[in-house]
Design brief:
TIM Barrel, eight-stranded parallel beta barrel, globular, binds flavin mononucleotide, Dihydroorotate_DH_cat, Dihydroorotate dehydrogenase catalytic domain-containing protein, DHO_dehydrogenase
Amino acid sequence: MTDFVQGPCTVSPARVFAFADYNVDGSFHENSEIYHNRAYSYDEDRTWVENMANGLPERGRNLPPCERCWAPQDKWVTFLNHKLASPLGVAAGPLLSSQWVRLAASRGFDCMTYKTIRSHYHPGHGLPNIIHLQVDEQLPVSGPACKGPLYARDRLPGSGVGLHDLKPGASMGIRGDGLGGGSSGMLAITNSFGMPSLGPEQLAEDLPAAAAALNPGQMMVVSITGTPGRPGLSFQEDLVLAARTALAGGATALEVNLSCPNVGASHVALYQDAPAVEALLAGLIEEVGRKVPLVIKMGSFPDCDGMRRVLQAAGRTGVGAVSGINGISRRVELPGGAGPALGPDRPTSGVCGDPIRAAGLEFVTRARQIIAAEDLGLELVGVGGVTQANHVMEYLQAGADIVQTATGFMWRPNLGIDFQRLWASSGYSVQRADGRGGRG
Ligand SMILES: Cc1cc2nc3c(=O)[nH]c(=O)nc-3n(C[C@H](O)[C@H](O)[C@H](O)COP(=O)(O)O)c2cc1C
């Protein structure tokens, strides 16, 4: 079935993945759950609390074993002083606990970011948390086109009700093929979880278990955030507590999430506020030291100057890397004027998956130019819309040091393995578009 071996590998173009959701030609099997928009690593009909309690869904637990192609060690890449077997990882979000980290580590991903943790237990929002969208083009990040709503499609997770039941006759663009709305084949979702988190006691057990699930050539970054309005604590003091929990659990790098589009008006654009970013990072480093490198997670920037100011600020504080982008914040509505899809208290949410790839690539291209021109010494993580192996190559060509995926990880069980094959066939290297060398 497979010609994949540990060490230098041979690659057969005729390889067919043994996965029940796929036909032999790689298309989705019409009886598969993925065919019906089901993530293999997450149950969209249940809350984060229920997913944590139940563990991986059956379809994620019962994936056929895959044999991965491992690069020889002299072809491994360096990221934040760690040796990674390849430049692909999973972004903050889909890896809820050590069980999910173990899954990613076994399916072709090497830089695993543990879902954003807080200083305290937080259950997050009720359902729905994930809604599929009718989108068939790349989303802009600035200009009037950003103001208009995007529309939900297909069933409402958790309700057991299809949107067509709510709005009889509405055109939903439902193909039921798990490939997104319209005829574009886009995997497009919005997510709104309210950043749930385990508490420090549970994390003290689970973070070391997650680190223990890694193989040589892999690393775990822990994503952290502060919470505004904690009694007696500033956002920064609360962030420091989360950082201490992550460090005590054995994090080898910390990712500071400054970009979640759902945290509320006062922090919507924290990552765009250069003085605030500098003060926050300097304060964090003063409290927790420089034992492990820091990454900052950003969203997209409407203009180059704003990005330059923030990258300069990050460079001054000695941060190791910047990562972008997070989901693009948009209004998400039910079709036919039926109102906000997530309910009246959540009119906007982060859009992820295929439609944000152009914005993510633009972030990486601009950031790479600024980092090089200003000699900032920052490493760069490319995120956004990576749902196929060749998307990873596009990000590396645009200047990313490593690439991560969230939505692609959850809905595309073979993405990591497919990329490892492509990476091998490229000779474990890629030429950057700016001609300044490349990965590998
Ligand atoms: C289900 C889900 C949960 C997410 N949770 C977080 C989170 O806790 N912290 C964070 O920084 N980003 C979070 N994100 C954003 C992703 O890290 C990523 O920036 C974004 O989804 C764009 O990448 P994608 O197009 O590959 O999904 C989440 C994304 C998804 C899909």
